[in-house]
Amino acid sequence: YGFYTGFDSDNSSGDFSEANHKVAEMLDLDPHQSNRSGEHNGETEIQENGIKKHRTSLPAPMFSRSDFSVWSILKKCIGLELSKITMPIVFNEPLSFLQRITEYMEHIYLINKACSHADPLERMQAVAAFAVSAVASQWERTGKPFNPLLGETYELTREDLGFRFISEQVSHHPPISAFYSEGLNKDFVFHGSIYPKLKFWGKSIEAEPRGTITLELLKHNEAYTWTNPTCCVHNVIIGKLWLEQYGTVEIVNHSTGDKCVLNFKPCGLFGKELHRVEGYIQDKNRKKLCVIYGKWTECLWCTDPTTYETYKKNEKRGGEQKKLKPSEDVIKSENDEADDMPEVQDTVQFIPGSKLLWRINCRPPNSSQMYNFTSFAVSLNELEKGMEAILAPTDCRLRPDIRNMENGNMDVASKEKERLEEKQRAARKERAKDEVEWHTRWFHQGTNPYTGTSDWLYSGGYFDRNFSDCPDIY
Fold this sequence. Notes:
Porin; 15-stranded antiparallel sheet; two-stranded parallel sheet; 10 helices; Oxysterol-bd; coiled coil
């Protein structure tokens, strides 16, 4: 979700197609990815298999950041709480943080896989791959998502992918975003709340994640919980910005007691460990069932612990190691699903006999001109004909600053951003004067039923589409 949320402040100036699911399972691809063709022409188009085509590019190319320095802003803010800093719009990307959270769903086929497996170990493997894939869209995304306004919402229904999603900004200070997603086949529920703690270290900005993420597989009566790794952006003063994730992610299956421990490794000297993920799945008696390894920017594999240990011993003795080449090793691997994976050049050392759990989707060819968005991200702020009449008036797609930035109108976007922040400040002062408390609309504060910790829970009712009492935030 990036280190950026909380920067901007108002204190400163249908059913999932079974056939499509099967094809996606065979290819191990995002079903949407495998069915994309043609350009979006502004109209809602339906393909033969009933999937809507989504746009494949943004209306205007990315604005150049080369004339601006992050340091020129941050040097005035040393010692200040980062959530009180307003950054110029040039450092943004044209998405709200609520839309950025929705990118967790890009690899939803992994949830579908978890639902379909009878073996709890295979379910945990798919859930672990989903947890890693959820941070993969951040790779090379150094633009800052817009900080959501209090009461802002985002909804996404994707019948082709078999889910619907709703999120709401439930708190402004500290910034907290709550989300809830469910399978259209009533096979899963995915929910959580996110409020990263930001730290500025001089040369880097770090976001320590707070908040629990919960995935419930309803058919198996299972619930998994975890917290995302720490995210850090380097070279904020000088040089090229780059991003890394590090820390330990523990995924707990609250029904079986199984646990997956994933270590996102810090870069280390000479970048040897850059983007590496290594871990294992253990049962309730702490017996290791399998080892998981790979990179969150590339792919994830699993193998049995004995094979892994043997490989590591040989590696220490200086045995020759094969590097993975998609054209050779992936296809020759024992994993049948790897055959039709997109050709992404991997740098992960492949251990013979490993099973491929996940590989990152290829980005569109024009991605570097589109804030390094994935194809999924490109479609998130799309406003199709007739949608305004259906959406809640608080939906991100209706935010004029994001819309203008997407269209390349940077000056208008900057003015609109300022206007919206001023409007939010004025509304807060008015509430303080009248001693009126802010009431969230779609989520309420409660306790996570599995971890016992404080959480924001979905109150229900959003898709009944009664938006009469939504706040006027734009």
